Amino acid sequence: MSLKTKVTLEILKLKKKAHEKIVALTAYDYGTAKILDEVGTDLILVGDSLGMVVLGYSSTLPVTLDDMIHHTRAVARGVRKSLLVADMPFSSYGISHEDTLRNAARFIQEAHAQAVKLEGGRTLADVIQKMVSVGIPVLGHLGMLPTHVIAQSGYHVQGRDVRQQKEMIEDALVLQDAGVFGLVLECVPTTLAREITEKLEIPTLGIGAGSDCDGQILVSHDLLGLYEGMKPKFVKQYAHLAQTMREAFKSYADDVKKGKFPSKEHIYS
Ligand code: KIV
Fold first, then answer.
1. Kind plus residue range of the DSSP H or E element containing 245
2. Residues 155 and 252 in one domain
3. Do 227 and 265 share a domain, yes or no?
4. CB 117 within 8 Å of CB 42
5. What's the pTM value of the predicted model, to 2 decimals?
6. How large a percentage of the chain has pLDDT more than 70?
7. In angstroms, what is the span from residue 141 Cα to ligand 1's centroid?
8. Residue identifier of the C-alpha nearest atom 1 of ligand 1
9. Residue whose CA lies nearest to ligand 1 atom number 3
10. Cα separation, 61 vs 118, whole angstroms
């Protein structure tokens, strides 16, 4: 796909058909979003992982709707071609249909997202149908669900036993029928992710779900080695930015203390 093309829901569907892998990453700020957009990332997610990698919480649960709106607005300013999706945080959906719809609409209207993501299965089908019917595209999310960390007793691979596998396949089909345009599969066995991917007409995005998904998504801070709190097995680090930053800040401090900075080229006469 040309880097000039605006990514649409239709393009993601066509990519699945053409067996062209979809590239997705998270962003929480303008600068990162601009770079991701420039390099041709298909889908940028303002994940509620924001809570852990940017805001310093130990889970995503404390992230508020206003936190997500604020960061999505910043990301939107950097995005021109990528599809921009915003995560709905814990308790902003699923309590009442009316609140869910109103909260989702804020992401589109105030924050300029093009879609929202919700974690969960069949119990969300009705509200997803309503969202889609009023023009709010929805990305589903099954498997390990960070907003269900208490109910799932921590961060574990999901779908290892036959009952869970059957349930997840059924959930995926129900979500597809409800109108989601794609599905994130997080921390599920490769064989299950493959089966779901083959059964669905909509694209799957894997994170810890093997290479047979239609695309891959990672938390950018993990890929960059910027978040040092947790390193799941599925993360590949392409850089070590935390270490690079430590070295840069230390060099600056050394230069200041020794009077080497500012030098001639950094001062005004
Ligand atoms: O919050 C997030 O960043 C996510 C991705 C890990 C898919 O949901």
1. helix 241-258
2. no
3. no
4. no
5. 0.96
6. 99
7. 9
8. 47
9. 47
10. 14
- The position carrying tokens 């850089």 is 239
Question: At CA 71, angle to CA 29 and CA 6, rounded to 5?
Answer: 70
Q: Domain check: are 263 and 211 in the same one?
A: no
Measured CA to CA in angstroms, residue 196 lies from 40, 129, 155, 199 at distances of 27, 20, 21, 5
CA dist 22 to 54, 199, 208, Å? 25, 18, 15
| Mean pLDDT for all residues in the chain | 96
25 with 66: CB under 8 angstroms?
no
pLDDT at residue 3 greater than cutoff 90: no
Pocket test for ligand 1, best of 48, 144, 185 (most atoms within 8 A of CB): 48
Closest by alpha carbon to 63, among 74, 72, 50, 76?
50
Asked whether residue 75 is domain-assigned, the answer is: yes
Token reading at 215: 């695309």
Please state, in angstroms and rounded to a whole number, the distance separating the CA atoms of residues 61 and 15: 33
Does one domain contain both 230 and 245?
Answer: no
The DSSP H or E segment spanning 140 is strand 138-143
Whether 98 is catalytic is no
